[in-house]
Every structure is written in structure tokens, then in C-alpha cells.
Amino acid sequence: MEINMTRADRLKDYVRGVMDRKDGTMLYNQYKDDIQNVTPQEAFEVFFHQLDRGTTPKKILEILDKVIHVFHGSLSMYIWEKPPKDSFLDTLMKENEELENKLSSIKEIIKRKDFKSNRLELLKRIEELQQFNAHYVKKENILFPYLEKKMEKFSGLTIMWSLHDEARASLNKLICLLQSKEPSETDFNAEIGNLFFILYGLSHKEQYILFPAALEVINEEEWIDMKKQSFEYDFPFIEKPPMDREALSDMADEVVKEENSFIMKTETGELSFEQALMIFNSLPVDLSFVDENNKVRFFTKPKDRLFPRSPAVIGRDVRNCHPSESVHVVDKIVEEFRQGNKDTAIFWIQMKGRTILIQYFALRNAQGEYKGVLEVSQDITEIKRMEGEKRLLEWQ
């Protein structure tokens, strides 16, 4: 029985052939009609298929650019509606344009053919490229999650995330090279070529695959939500876009009852009462909340409490929870917080051979009104001893 294969199925076979190192010309001729009509959505599908087969993103990167190069003719001719001015996607596109302008200016410096004299200027321009990391972080933390919720094939974005990491690593290597006492011009030329290849490649993959595909599956309301979230990050090399009325509107926080549990719904997620309490009590800190009327309203019960607390303290005036000798300090903190002069107060003490950090934070609502104080106490003895890095999981 003949199986009706779609163009995406045949393109998957083509990419499998490339992965298996089959003859490139033979493969191209066999799948020429499909290659010349590939769409951004199909490009996502064929690379996700490789991940689904168990191929690692690192292994896919070995053939990614070769395949994208073959697909380029069709992808570059693909017609898609460009995003509205100052939308989330529009700002990402403008950031790419400015990145390419920065890369062009670096090329002009390299053309001067005097590496030693231009080293410091090159270092300054290349260090400036670190700002572009905000572009990748916005993709990873805003755009990618929205796409992954739409279709399984967008799990393939892990491949693009790996490319982000390659760009970061190449940039750091280049900066370290230029900061060294006697940088090698040969090494510099090799690494700057690698960096340019990665950065231009990422920009083109966004322009021809990621952005067109995203516009086809994400709705207007979701784009507005993404724009609002993007203001938590920088906008490398461009002016921050104006925040429109829709982006200014906040998601209403509320508590609703579902079956036998109360659910706290906020802009940053949902928690049941039980989940919230587990989180509070699992934190390696003591938390105490005093409201705007100076009354103790809540404290957590972590596994290892630092200071004694009993339920009888609830509703008590905070000044009565401290020795008389330190009440003036409590009054000073509360008054400075209430007046808006300060937002934090920090102390540390020695107790039973341990170093205890005690921090006070002013709590304010969305309108900036003072709503109380959060006291956070933490044993930082082991934290103070930390040096270097620990990247491996080593349970004792």
C-alpha cells in the first residue's frame, strides 16, 4: 500500500540523509522540489523530528547551517506579514538591524590592517556586543515559552538556545583574547570570524524562520502580553519602545475557589494555598510580616528556625516583640519605610558560632503605598565560605 507522504515528511528524510553523511548533490536532486518550497513551519518540523529521534541539539548544530543554506532560497522568498511598529517582534527585528550595524563598524576597524594599534578600540566595540545578550534572554524567556505552548515542534527551539550559548562563549573568548598582554592576531582573526558567523547566522534564522513562524501561530493578545513582559529587560542598541495602553494594563490578581482549594492567580503564575505554604516553609530563611499598623500578621515555620516564634505573637505590636533597648531602632526603620525614605535595612550578628544576616524590606502596593515590613533572617555561615564555582551535583 502506498503511503501518502507530505512535503514535511520528505524534508525529514532529506535531513536524515544529511545527518547520515550521504552524498549532498544526490540528496538535493532527490528532494529538489520540496527544498525549493520549504516554509518556516516545515523547517521547525524537520529539526524537531531530529530531536524526537534522540539526536542532541549539539549534534544537530553540526549540520544545521548546511541545511539552512540549502533551504535559504525558499525561506528568503517566503511572504509573511511584518509585525506592527513598536510591537514586541518589531523591537526584536530592530535590535537585529542595529546589531548588524555594530558588526559592520567592527569590520571597518579590522580593514585598517593594524591589529596592535586598533586592539583597544576593537576591545571596546566587542565588549559592547555583550549588551545584545538581552535580545537572546528575551527570546529564551518570553518568545520561546509562548511558542512551545502552541505546538510540540517548537520544542526544537532548544537548538537555537544552543546557538545563543555558542555566541556567548565565542564573545567571551574574544574579549579574553583581546584583554591578554600579547594577543595573537591569528587567533583573533579566527575567533572574530567564528563570532560573525554565529551572530549573522542567528539573525538570519530569526528573520527567515523564527519570526515568520511565530507570527502565524501567536495571536494579538499574546503579542501584547509579550511586549509588557519585555520591559523587564534591556533593549540593546535601540530606544525603548513606547508602552501602549494595552501593555500598561495589569493582569488582575485574585484568589478563587476551585473544588476544595483556594487558588491564588497572579500575573506570574498560580498557586494553591497548600503550595504557597510549602514554598514559604521550604525557604532556608525565617520570614516575618508586620503590617502597616505595626502588627505582626504572619511568620513562616522553616525546618531550622533561627529565632523563636509562637502563634501567640500574631496581632502583637512589633515594638513589643523586641527588647526595650532596641525599640528605637525598630521605630526608626518603620518610620523611614513609611515615609518612603528607605526600602531596606541590613544587619548581621554572631550567634552560637554562626553568622546570621537580618534584612528588613519595605512592602508597598502597586500604587506605592506603604503596607508593612518583611523581616528575613538567614544563616549565611556556609555562604561566606563559598569560593570559585560548583557546577556538578554532589550530594553528601
Automatic annotation (TrEMBL):
InterPro entries, per database record: 4_helix_cytokine-like_core, Hemerythrin-like, PAS-assoc_C, PAS-like_dom_sf
Gene3D superfamilies according to UniProt: nmb1532 protein domain like, PAS domain
All residue ranges annotated as the PAC domain in the record: 333-392
Superkingdom of origin organism: Bacteria
Identification of the protein by name: PAS domain-containing protein
Organism, as annotated: Lutispora saccharofermentans
